[in-house]
Here is the input.
Amino acid sequence: MTILAIDQGTTSSRAIVFSADLSVLAVAQQEFPQQFPASGWVEHDPADIWSSTAAVTRAVIEKAGLRGADLAAIGITNQRETTVIWDRATGQPIHNAIVWQDRRTADLCAALKAQGHEPAVAATTGLLLDPYFSATKAAWMLDQVEGAHARAEAGELAFGTIDSFLIWHLTGGEVHATDATNAARTMLYDIHRGCWSPELCDLFRVPMAMLPEVRDSAGDYGTTRPDLFGAAIPIRGVAGDQQAAAVGQACFRPGMVKSTYGTGCFALLNTGERAVQSQNRLLTTIAYQLNGRPTYALEGSIFIAGAVVQWLRDGLGLIREASETQALAERADPAQALVLVPAFTGLGAPYWRPESRGAIFGLTRNSGPAEFARAALESVGHQTRDLLDAMRADWSGAGDTVLRVDGGMACSNWTMQFLADMIGAPVDRPRVTETTALGAAYLAGLAAGLCPDPEQFGHQWTLERRFQPRMPADERESRHARWQRAVAATL
Here is the structure.
């Protein structure tokens, strides 16, 4: 039997078929449009999300030479925090999806902070009052769409993150559910009591009648409509993309850390059964939930990682392909101390300064493409060091842990070596790089009885390459101090 993973991301929808031993058999991917209706606003048409997801699912089944009946289970992983509200009777959204990157509710968040609500929000949800999360996005839609509040109170509307929206459509409206990892990113979920918070729903004016049922990450989410893929396929695994990557990296023991380098960078530290309240503006979140028991994590979010390479290519025209950055960085003049702080859309953890903007320090007449490329790649290592320092300050169990990496930038040997040098700890790159989809497939396979328990799955994790720190400690510290001065000047 085989397992299908749906990986619904910010810029594309992907589907991957895995064998029972979790080897990749086939991949299909389709990009969809991004919409920017105003400065700082980012939207998706939910119809594009659904149609692209259905299309790649059909395509990958055909590509693998299978029928729907050959699939034992489906696992879903998704862009987190992106918010949809739809009509329960018709399935039609009342507004475009508001994407996690969207900043339109910054004023509402600032007002709630000024009223002193952030400590209670953080204590309940582990999150900071920021437009990043779903609650203020849902509140904005309910306020802006005529009659939406009354319809939501009457139970006519459904709220969900992308996983819920897909489950609804895959099951023909039979199941309105989410998993604990996605619920934990809404700013409406009490991560300690394991339920929606009536107090926060009142604060954000989001009626509880519109919220999905919260289930385990490996559990029963119904079956697909038979007409979609030729058979009724069980949906058995759901997790937000970063948590799915942590599962795919087998970060099941407290103290294990993974960092995913895509458009941004997201580092998760497993803290086990204890929800550690950060004193350094990290997020407390749910890593996964199995058999009704949540495992918690500390998370640090960097807004710009791979996007800085896109900027070199599309903004400055210094490169044609992202892969060119490594060769450029290797040629950079070691005497130049160029520092790039890529705060193009603000700075994420541990600073959380959305109003900050990017800056470059140390420019000379000899600064050229090679120096810019090196500074861009180095910025990722410095930002990750900031996250890990904050994690170590928050929880002694972080220690000098090994960092497991994935995502597009993890393919750059130069970047990963600098990362190891900057954090002063080994960086491990796995043999299977499709870690997000792998995590979703594993959760589905676990619930379907095809995959082993987490401990045994962890033993199957295989290393492709380990990067050991080589930089002398005094050089590491002096270079990071220079970075911190640049960040301070930017702030």
Q: What stands out?
A: DSSP finds 17 helices and 22 strands in the chain. The CA atoms of residues 344 and 358 lie 5 Å apart. The longest strand covers residues 293-302. The mean pLDDT is 91.
